[in-house]
Each structure stands twice: as structure tokens, then as C-alpha cells.
């Protein structure tokens, strides 16, 4: 006779779900509905008048050169953060997977950056690369490499926010890549070595195909991170400058909505950004996942 657990209270499960449902509705669903409605309206900064303008906010956006420039900057930024973050993290994970002296300390130090909040990471990198008192610009100038100043040079600012964002995300990527490497049977790698495959061949023919599910998961996560989670870093580091060179779309939404009080345009930008990222994720799952070996 099998003993089966019986749960006779039919109301308690719904009561236990109520807090999570409330949080989801209050902080995710309801704001999304309000943003979609606001995208079709025009409201003055003081909330005195509200006018339904249909798709006028979207028409203005796609004819606004600053918005198109921000979209271009976002694509460059997200590609740089995702590509560099995955490549560097994978390399570090492969190195940490070897039998090295002090490897535990090495792994711990690589994980630490993920514990730093994006805003704090922005302050740290801003201090290190400060054109007046920063250590990195000082050493660059003393070695005759370049005169670093991300406050007035758009190229320097773009490189700085990309490297800072990659550094802040390395720990997260490193943990997953290292876990994926631990899951690969050593016997497969040893068999490839016995067959005469060198280290590079073993990595690309054995290790990386088995690591592709982890790589695909991190690809999606890093794209979302670059689009949304780098707001605090950019706000603390460059505030979108100079000349809008680091003003990605999520930061422009903040500028237009909270500083300029243009709620309709900000809501329209939010809707477009969500749709674009959702479409990009669907494309990744439809086409890139085909190369994943489960």
C-alpha cells in the first residue's frame, strides 16, 4: 500500500501565492499597462492636461536624430559588452579549470566583481580613470601612450563604460562557464588527446560544443544585462556624456521621462525597447539555439 500525501485545504495555496501575485501586478503588470497608455498620449509636465495623440509620439521618435543616435550607441555598447564579456569570462574559466597553485584564491577574486553594484562599479572606474587624479591616466601619460580624458573624448567614454560593464559582469559569466566545464567528463578530453588532438583542437571540437548550452544561456543574459542593467553604471560614470556618446536607450528614457518630464515620449521609448529586446531574444532562440548541442 502506497502512502500518498493529501492536501485537503484548497484555499491555502492561493493565499500563499497572493504576496507574489500582488508584487507582480503592482510593480510589473500595472506599470506596463500605464506605460502603454501613456505612449499614446501627450501630458504636460505638471499633469494639467492629457491629450490622446495616437502614434504621434512614435512618429516623432523615429524622426529624432538624438533617439536614432542613442539606438546606434546602444547596439554598439551591447555588442561590445556581450562579446568581450563572454570571451574573457570563458578564457578565465578555462584557465581556472586547470590544476594551478592558489586556484581557489584565483576563483574567488574573479567572482568578487559581480558582488559590486553597478553604481558602485561606476564610481570605482570613474576614480581609477579620473583625468586629474586617476592612476590609469597617470601611467598612460608617463609611458607616452595617450592622454586619457573620458569627460571630453567620446571614444574614451565609450570604451570606459564597455570595459566597466564587462568587469562588473565577469563574475556571473565565470561561475556558469566554470560549472559547465566541471560537468564535462574528463574521459572525453583524454580520449581526444590520445587520438592526437592538440589543446586548441580539443577545445573547439570537444569542450566548446558541450559548453554551448551554457554559452547560449549567457548570451541571452548578457544582452539583457547590456540593455537594462547598466543604467546605474552609466549614471555614476558618465551620465550619458560627453555629447550623448554613452547615452544608451534605457538612460535616454530616464532623461526624457524624469528630467524633461516628457512622459509620452519616454513611455513610447520604453515600449519600443521592450519589443526590440523581446524580438532579439526570440531570434536568438530561433536561429542561434540550432547550433547548441544538448
UniProtKB/TrEMBL annotation:
SUPFAM superfamilies per record: MetI-like
PROSITE patterns: ABC_TM1
BP-aspect Gene Ontology terms: transmembrane transport
Domain ABC transmembrane type-1: residue ranges: 71-284
Keyword field contains Nucleotide-binding: no
Localization: Cell inner membrane; Cell membrane
Primary residence: membrane
Function, in words: Part of the ABC transporter complex UgpBAEC involved in sn-glycerol-3-phosphate (G3P) import. Probably responsible for the translocation of the substrate across the membrane.
Subunit structure as annotated in this protein's UniProt entry: The complex is composed of two ATP-binding proteins (UgpC), two transmembrane proteins (UgpA and UgpE) and a solute-binding protein (UgpB).
Name of this chain's protein: sn-glycerol-3-phosphate transport system permease protein UgpA
Organism: Pikeienuella piscinae
Lineage of origin: Bacteria, Pseudomonadati, Pseudomonadota, Alphaproteobacteria, Rhodobacterales
Gene expressing this chain: ugpA
Amino acid at each position: 500500500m502506497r502512502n500518498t500525501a493529501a492536501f485537503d485545504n484548497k484555499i491555502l495555496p492561493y493565499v500563499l501565492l497572493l504576496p507574489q501575485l500582488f508584487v507582480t501586478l503592482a510593480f510589473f503588470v500595472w506599470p506596463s499597462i500605464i506605460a502603454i497608455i501613456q505612449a499614446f498620449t501627450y501630458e504636460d509636465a505638471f499633469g494639467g492636461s492629457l491629450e490622446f495623440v495616437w502614434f504621434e509620439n512614435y512618429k516623432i521618435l523615429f524622426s529624432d536624430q538624438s533617439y536614432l543616435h542613442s539606438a546606434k550607441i546602444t547596439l554598439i555598447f551591447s555588442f561590445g559588452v556581450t562579446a568581450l564579456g563572454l570571451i574573457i569570462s570563458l578564457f578565465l574559466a578555462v584557465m581556472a579549470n586547470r590544476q594551478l597553485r592558489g586556484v581557489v584564491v584565483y576563483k574567488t577574486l574573479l567572482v568578487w566583481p559581480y558582488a559590486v553594484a553597478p553604481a558602485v562599479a561606476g564610481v570605482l572606474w570613474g576614480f581609477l580613470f579620473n583625468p586629474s587624479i586617476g592612476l590609469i591616466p597617470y601611467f598612460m601619460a608617463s609611458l607616452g601612450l595617450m592622454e586619457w580624458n573620458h569627460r571630453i573624448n567620446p571614444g574614451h567614454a565609450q570604451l570606459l563604460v564597455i570595459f566597466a560593464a564587462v568587469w562588473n559582469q565577469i563574475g556571473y559569466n565565470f561561475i556558469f562557464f566554470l560549472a559547465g566545464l566541471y560537468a564535462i567528463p574528463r574521459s572525453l578530453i583524454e580520449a581526444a588527446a590520445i587520438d592526437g588532438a592538440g589543446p586548441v583542437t580539443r577545445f573547439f571540437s570537444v569542450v566548446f560544443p558541450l559548453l554551448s548550452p551554457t554559452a547560449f544561456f549567457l548570451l541571452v543574459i548578457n544582452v539583457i544585462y547590456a540593455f537594462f542593467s547598466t543604467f546605474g553604471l552609466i549614471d555614476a560614470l558618465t551620465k550619458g556624456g560627453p555629447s550623448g556618446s554613452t547615452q544608451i536607450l534605457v538612460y535616454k528614457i530616464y532623461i526624457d521621462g524624469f528630467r524633461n518630464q516628457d512622459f509620452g515620449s519616454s513611455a513610447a521609448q520604453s515600449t519600443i525597447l521592450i519589443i526590440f529586446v523581446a524580438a532579439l531574444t526570440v531570434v536568438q532562440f530561433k536561429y542561434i539555439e540550432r547550433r547548441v548541442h544538448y
